[in-house]
Amino acid sequence: MPRSRVAQLVAVIAGAILVAGLAGSASARTRARVQPPTEIQRAGKIVYCSDITYPPEEFYAKGSTKPAGSDIDIGTQIAKLMAVKAQFDNTGFDGIIPALLSHKCNAIISGMNDTAKRRRQVGFVDYLRVGQSLMVRKGNPSHVSGLASLSGRSVSVELGTTNAGFLEKENAKLTGQGKQTIKIVTYPKDTDAATALKTGRVDAYFGDSPVVAWYIQQDRSSFAFAGQPINPIPVGIAVRKDDAQFHAALHKAVRLMYRDGSMKRILAKWHMSAFALKTK
Amino acid sequence: MPLAAVAWHVVWQRIVHPDHAFALALWRTIYMSVTAQFFGVVLGLVAALMRMSRLRILRLLSGAYVLVFRGTPVIVQIFFVYFGVNLLFGFTLIPNTVSAGPISLDGAALAGIVALAVNEGAYMREIIRAGIDAIDKGQMEAAKSLGMTYRLAMRRIVLPQAARVIVPPLGNEFNNMLKTSSLVFFIGVTELFGDAEIRNSTAFQPVEYFTAVAFWYLVLTTVWSLIQAQIERALARDERGEAPSFRERVFQAWAPVAAWRTGGAR
Predict the structure, then answer these.
(1) Which of A119, A142, B29, B139 is deepest in the core (most CB within 10 A)?
(2) A222 CB near a chain B CB, below 8 Å?
(3) Which domains does chain A have, with CATH numbers?
(4) From residue B113, how far is each of A82, B34, B65, B124, B177 by CA, in Å?
């Protein structure tokens, strides 16, 4: 094939792509109820980093490799409002902020607690408010009744969560009082921390209340709550600090979801209505 | 362009001023690797001898052992030893803490040792078998003609010679073991790598913490290569000169660094 014909062909294909792209973005602009930043609009999707081992917020549905959960539904709804697709990249929780900072994704939606320490690295759009709960084996064989009863007991947590940090602070207090500390056993995956409780390797599991509620709902013959939920903390979608436009768009989308009832519907579906933000 | 400058003082601090939790993690990596490797060699030797047995059932068992444990991921084996048995059969294979007199061991660490040892045994069987095969058949015949039994000839004549062939690949295996032991973090044992992961999970400085932990693994593997050189020298006492000396081994291990410093010119 002569050179000029190749060039022609390339030009035609490039032109076709350009036209299709313009048409696509034009129609997207008309449908979007929340205007996304141009970068996301051009990509046609929001990429979320999510540690997909944290039911009911994000997990793989039984017998499938499709992510499911309240965060997945919320993230998908946000993308729908911006007239783009949602993609969820499974990322280990301890590496999830570096993944966001190194542009592996546009945002983190992973049941992440909005804390002062994390705010130093990322910006948050809060969308839930959850407490933490202790879970024990059914019948409570180790007699765990709440935080105060944990001295000298072993508790499993997931690596990199605020739950692990919270227990460490409790330990500092216990040491100050001259009491035995809690034996904190850290697991790289949350589901393994729960398995450790189920197999009697630890006396209790400590995690976010919705997660505990989900584990109990899934396996009533093994698990039960111990004591009352503690420490309500806001949960947020994390974005890069220099991504102000996307931050504002997410904020608008979450507010819209609270107003039009879609948030209420999603939370009810996952038995998480108790964790809705109090909106005026 | 890098996204953020490396906070070298963090790396430096992890290397020069390691804290108590780190020392404990380092100790766990060392004792888990050493005991797992030791029992791995024992299992491998037993399996290698079984494979050469006249009894068909022993040969089959040995083959099945290698097939299963060399053919499945170590992480799955670790899971089954610590969690799987409880979930499947409802009994605890390895208790949560094991105490023997003054020594008390974390059950998870013991489960890790068991899983790593069983896995290692499958690899060691092949290495030991190759070592024994490398010894001339005439050695066994000569020993027998002197009136030695099979077991005595194996112990006194064949195995000591095979050891010389076995040690270099065994050195590789243990070097691997030092690093593979990090998989035991999966069942909640905070060893060297787990310690780095936990620190990183609150500091969010993966480059710093992983660089420091890589340095410590390098220290462990360097120390091991020196020990291995000593073992090889001891085994080659009658043929002194073939095995590298202690100094030569140090030199060889770091030769690429020296070459790099002189710009490749030697």
Answers:
(1) B29
(2) no
(3) 3-130+234-275 (3.40.190.10), 131-233 (3.40.190.10)
(4) 52, 9, 17, 15, 11
